[in-house]
């Protein structure tokens, strides 16, 4: 099944590619891979929340934001690759969670990104991953995700 058909089956519509907030491009194609820049959970051009996970933002909310980040990354990759059906799978995902010092649930937060990519790509969505806690992210976003996709 094509990626576009799978997205339709899941009822997922990819967002428009988020405009960069600094001097970079959303995604780059190189030697059979698409590398995305860090994607924030922009929805309709705005962040749905700001602050730290474990304080202003709950873990379940942050998990949903990580999912949005992954969909934003897929949109950026598809745009760079010439269409979503040019994306064959996921190689690596890096997740960053702006969190309080005592919050240790970063892997659970980033599962929001990993699980949606698994739903979309099936076995080709299995990937290596890092989930890192950081003191602050751009624009005070609670979550940021970067993904390396495999081209078809």
TrEMBL record:
The record's InterPro entries line, in alphabetical order, gives:
Endoribo_LPSP/chorism_mut-like, RutC-like_sf
Q: Name one Pfam family in it.
A: YjgF_endoribonc
Domain Endoribonuclease L-PSP/chorismate mutase-like: start-end pairs: 5-143
Name the record gives this protein:
Endoribonuclease L-PSP
Q: Which source organism does the UniProt entry give?
A: Microbacterium foliorum
């Amino acid at each position: 099944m094509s990626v576009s058909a799978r997205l339709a089956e899941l009822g997922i519509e990819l967002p428009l590619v988020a405009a960069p907030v600094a001097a970079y491009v959303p995604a780059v194609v190189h030697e059979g891979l698409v590398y995305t820049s860090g994607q924030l959970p922009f929805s309709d051009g705005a962040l749905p929340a700001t602050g730290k996970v474990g304080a202003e933002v709950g873990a379940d909310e942050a998990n949903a934001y990580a999912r949005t980040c992954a969909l934003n990354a897929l949109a950026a990759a598809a745009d760079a690759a010439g269409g979503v059906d040019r994306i064959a799978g996921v190689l690596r995902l890096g997740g960053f969670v702006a969190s309080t010092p005592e919050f240790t649930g970063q892997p659970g937060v980033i599962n929001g990104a990993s699980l949606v990519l698994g739903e979309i790509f099936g076995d080709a969505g299995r990937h290596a991953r890092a989930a890192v806690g950081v003191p602050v992210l751009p624009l005070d976003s609670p979550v940021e995700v970067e993904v390396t996709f495999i081209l078809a």
